Amino acid sequence: NAGVMQNPRHLVRRRGQEARLRCSPMKGHSHVYWYRQLPEEGLKFMVYLQKENIIDESGMPKERFSAEFPKEGPSILRIQQVVRGDSAAYFCASSRSWTGGLYEQYFGPGTRLTVT
Amino acid sequence: AQKITQTQPGMFVQEKEAVTLDCTYDTSDPSYGLFWYKQPSSGEMIFLIYQGSYDQQNATEGRYSLNFQKARKSANLVISASQLGDSAMYFCAMRVSGGGADGLTFGKGTHLIIQP
After folding, report:
1. Would you call B79 exposed, middle or buried from its count of C-beta atoms within 10 A (0-12, 13-18, 19+)?
2. Could you point out which of B4, B14, B69, B80 has its C-alpha 20 to 30 Å from the C-alpha of A68?
């Protein structure tokens, strides 16, 4: 039973390039969350998605960042025109269908983005 | 808004001793869940234990237990009989129930080092 998959595990981009991070949730999970972890800090919530819907993007920077979770395929976090401050670990998590319960979120291994 | 406070940036503990990692939280929502995650040096986030705000008993999972004191708004993690493999960062997190269904709010973490 595969867990949450993220790729790539490590990504190096030059300033101004685009970064695309992919996340496949656990089987049977339809809710996806993206978090960012800066060095020496805890994780910060960015966005919560269901298939074809962004439910909560209150933690997303207003510019350059976008996320999607299409009907088919993985969820994508896209960062345009990356800057050095975007260097961080980006984690994806998934959970079961939310029916009012507070189910645990299972995390992927993360993508370490380095902007040079 | 929710807030998680972990006041111990780092802890050194002798192998086989019990460990208590502190966590206090703040929320005005009556329905919420509290989570603990472990992040070893390899970087992945491992779910350890969950406590619901309406749960009557403290949660336990193997060597992990959660000392939930609702009136004090604390949710300390207790690790019994610590092992060298317990050395890692530990994060306390919270999520509230309700319309937004947004992501987890994390504390800054405690770096636990188990010494032989």
Report:
1. buried
2. B4
Identify which of A45, A58, A100 has the shortest CB distance to residue B104. Answer: A45
- Beta bridge partners of residue A96, listed in sequence order: none
B27 inside 8 A of chain A by CB: no
**A23: which strand partners?**
A6, A75
Residue in the block written with tokens 């000392």: B67
Which residue has 């749960």 as its token pair?
B55
Residue B67 has phi, psi (to 5 degrees) of -90, 95
Which residues have CB under 8 Å from B43's CB, separation 6+? A89, A109, A110, A112
Instruction: Please tell me the total number of residues recorded for chain A in this structure.
Output: 116
Taking the C-alpha atoms of residue B76 and residue B79, their distance in angstroms, rounded to an integer, is 10
User: Given this model, what pLDDT does residue A104 score?
Assistant: 77
Burial of A53 (0-12, 13-18, 19+ CB in 10 A): exposed
CA A19 → CA A35, A91, B35, distances in Å? Answer: 15, 14, 30
Asked if residue A1 has pLDDT above 80, the reply is: no
Hunting for tokens 């960015």 — which residue is that?
A: A46
Chain B residue with the nearest C-alpha to that of A33: B103
CB-based contact B101 A110, cutoff 8 Å: no
pLDDT score recorded for residue B96: 80
Q: Using a CB-CB distance cutoff of 8 angstroms, which residues of chain B are in contact with residue A109?
A: 43-44
Quick check: A101 pLDDT over 60? no
